[in-house]
Amino acid sequence: ISEQMTQDLAARTRPVTKAELQGLCGASPELVNDLLAFGMIASENERFDEHAQKIAAASAALAAHGIEPRHLRAFRAAADREVGLVERVVAPHMSRGDVASRARAAETAREISDACMALHGALVNGAIAKLDH
Predict the structure, then answer these.
(1) Which run of H or E residues covers position 61?
(2) Taking the model in full, what pTM does it have?
(3) How many angstroms separate the CA atoms of 58 and 69, rounded?
């Protein structure tokens, strides 16, 4: 994804239509339909949130290299496993129900998510760096 596209998507906060999603991300109608079919993105009231927009943009960039949505199911499965891990860690805070505990759980979830993303990036980039040698 280009730096400009990332900035444009980050600046968007409103949900977009399917046509807008395709235009913003450079995704074909077929790609968006495949992402929907494989559970990579979902719409609410036929609108796509900022996360769906980022997923579609990344998927369009990968599609440009021949990586199809069906190949991305492993990403969905890995993300689901990571979310399960986060949920297990923050569940005790969420069960308390008070505002402070829920806020702490949300912050902890973001911290764990950031660490998971950093770990994933380091693992992938480290393995790719070894391909050069």
Answers:
(1) helix 50-63
(2) 0.80
(3) 11
What is the spatial distance between Cα 103 and Cα 89, in angstroms, rounded to a whole number?
14
Nearest Cα to Cα of residue 56 among 74, 83, 77, 29: 29
The model's pLDDT over 47-69, given as tens digits with 9 standing for 90+, comes to 999 999 999 999 999 999 999 99
Give the contacts of 59 (CB within 8 A, at least 6 positions apart).
Answer: 25, 27, 31, 35, 40, 69, 72
Q: Which residues on adjacent β-strands are paired with residue 47?
A: 44
Q: Would you place residue 1 in the very low, low, confident or very high pLDDT band (cuts 50, 70, 90)?
A: low
CB-count exposure of residue 89 (10 Å: 0-12, 13-18, 19+): middle
Burial group, residue 118, by CB count within 10 angstroms (0-12, 13-18, 19+):
exposed
Centre a 10 Å sphere on the Cβ of residue 84 and count the other Cβ atoms it contains.
10
Tokens of 48: 């796509």
- For every residue of 25-47, DSSP letters joined together read HT--HHHHHHHHHTTS---BTTB
